Amino acid sequence: MPARAVSPRSVVIVGGGVGGLAAGIRLAAAGHYVQLFERSGRLGGKLGSHAAAGFRWETGPSLLTLPAVFDDLLSLAGTSLAEACRPVRLPHTCRYHFADGSTFTTWDDPATTRAEVEALSPGSGPAWGRWGRRSARVWETAERTFFTGPIEDPRALLDRMRSPLDLVAIDPLPTLHQRAAATFSDPRLVQWACRYATYAGSDPWRVPATLGCIPHIEQSYGCWALLGGLATLAEALAAAATKLGVTLHTGTEVATLLADGPEGRLTGVRLASGEVVAADIVVANVDAAHLYADLLPDKGGQRRVRAAGRSTSGFVLLLGVEGRTEALDHHTVLFSSGYRQEFVDLAAGRPPADPTVYVCAADRTDPSAAPPGHESLFVLVNVPSADDPEAAWVGGRADAYAERVLGVLERRDLDLRRRIVHQEVITPAQLAARHRAVGGAIYGTSSNGRRAAFTRPSNRGRRPGLYVVGGSSHPGGGLPLVALSARIVADMVAADLAG
Ligand SMILES: Cc1cc2nc3c(=O)[nH]c(=O)nc-3n(C[C@H](O)[C@H](O)[C@H](O)COP(=O)(O)OP(=O)(O)OC[C@H]3O[C@@H](n4cnc5c(N)ncnc54)[C@H](O)[C@@H]3O)c2cc1C
């Protein structure tokens, strides 16, 4: 348990995504009076699920990593991930199908995975080992330096480093593609490694090789599913927040942040209903682009959001399918033949003509996701975010792209079309509208470029009394990182109050 705040403050949290809920839990556990306002009718933000015709699909995250981050968070309410949800560590972390018809599976067991790599690409075992050791070193260094505190203060960052060599250990200079191409001679393994850029909605030809730490995270701490769906984590976080005394308001939009003069300290928020809620501290869990354009217009904040750039968006098919597709595991990736072209298309603002397709078949682990004799498939393709995602997907473009994705699967011998009994599409425009994800960006800001970590909006807001959590702020998107941003903010609030 954290020390109780010497002097409890009133806190308003804007947005009930994972970042907002996690911040609520931490600040209430520290003794503050916390109210959270979420504009939509449900909590969890992008972490959601959808049920229809007897099927259930994730509508956002389908893969949970670093469960210890959530254990740590839930322990503040006297519970754990295992007590509050039904976690399952997957025996296979992912199955990969390459365009040449070859395939390999990564297992929750390094020796078996290495044997699979050798079978796929004889002689690549040592390179796989080198990649794994580097991946572990990057994560172990980044975890205690970049992910435990804010990074805009270079002295504080240096204090968390054991030596200047830590800066080298996180592998920030080469791009992920350069590092992968220098490690593997087999282009399929280069493609495998490059895919991790997309976990941050970014481009392997532009992100630093630091993102190469993700395979270590998956292989050492596991890839997890939750029975009943990943969205049960949002319910668990909401229950923990309530238990700690957070007042959760859904269907309540915040229209403006209120400050004491143009440069002054925040004093609270005005709701869309016109009601004013006073607060000593405001934590924004909304996309930083929405924060600094609409809620607290601030040119400097807008510049910083623009400099960081938007992450990619996603085009999602929710399919209810009769029968069982043997080529699919719980997580399956079907790689395109031209990975470079895919990212050229994305950078040019075009949905890839020949996309890599990710499929989550949650029923492989949780039969309750589909009726007997059927499978529930969440199909995701990376597509660009856009200034106006609504305009980008009008005029039958969504239906045409859904057909393209199904065509890609068909060419890879996954002939789903004639077995589909239920089909829905989620476009970037819907992601933008549902979660106020500016441009439809899944992860908020991108990680492209060596300076991405430093240009991303800071957890310290641009006015006294304002703090920022969530995917568009440090340390970035993805469930565990978003939860870590809440820990950084809670520590920052405690330090500010103490200082
Ligand atoms: C299709 C998809 C697949 C993904 N896959 C994965 C995955 O497999 N693994 C993983 O770890 N991550 C994944 N992610 C990313 C992950 O979902 C996000 O990084 C994370 O959920 C973001 O949480 P957040 O708290 O930052 O923001 P959000 O979830 O966006 O929450 C922000 C909340 O603020 C609310 N809000 C906005 N404006 C206002 C306002 N003015 N007043 C009140 N409320 C407001 C919104 O309604 C929303 O609920 C995926 C995301 C998507 C969309």
Break the fold down into its secondary structure elements and pairings.
Layout: E1 10-14, H1 18-29, E2 33-37, E3 49-52, E4 55-58, H2 67-75, H3 81-84, E5 87-89, E6 92-97, E7 103-107, H4 110-120, H5 125-145, H6 154-159, H7 165-169, H8 176-183, H9 187-194, H10 214-221, E8 224-226, H11 232-243, E9 247-249, E10 254-259, E11 266-271, E12 276-278, E13 281-284, H12 288-295, H13 299-308, E14 313-322, E15 331-334, H14 339-347, E16 357-361, E17 374-383, H15 389-392, H16 397-411, E18 420-426, H17 428-435, H18 452-455, E19 466-468, H19 479-498
Parallel strand pairs: 1-2, 1-13, 2-9, 6-15, 13-19
Antiparallel strand pairs: 3-4, 5-8, 6-7, 10-11, 11-12, 14-17, 14-18, 15-16, 16-17
What is the structural class? alpha/beta
- Work out the strand percent: 15-25%
What about the largest sheet? 7 strands, mixed
**Which ligands are bound?**
flavin-adenine dinucleotide
Mean pLDDT: 96
How do the strands of the widest beta sheet line up side by side?
7-6-15-16-17-14-18
| Shape category | globular
Q: Please count the beta strands (DSSP E, at least 2 residues each).
A: 19
Range of helix content: 25-40%
Distance between the termini: 21 Å
Question: What labels describe this entry?
Answer:
binds flavin-adenine dinucleotide; 19 helices; 5-stranded parallel beta sheet; 19% strand; 499 residues; 7-stranded mixed beta sheet
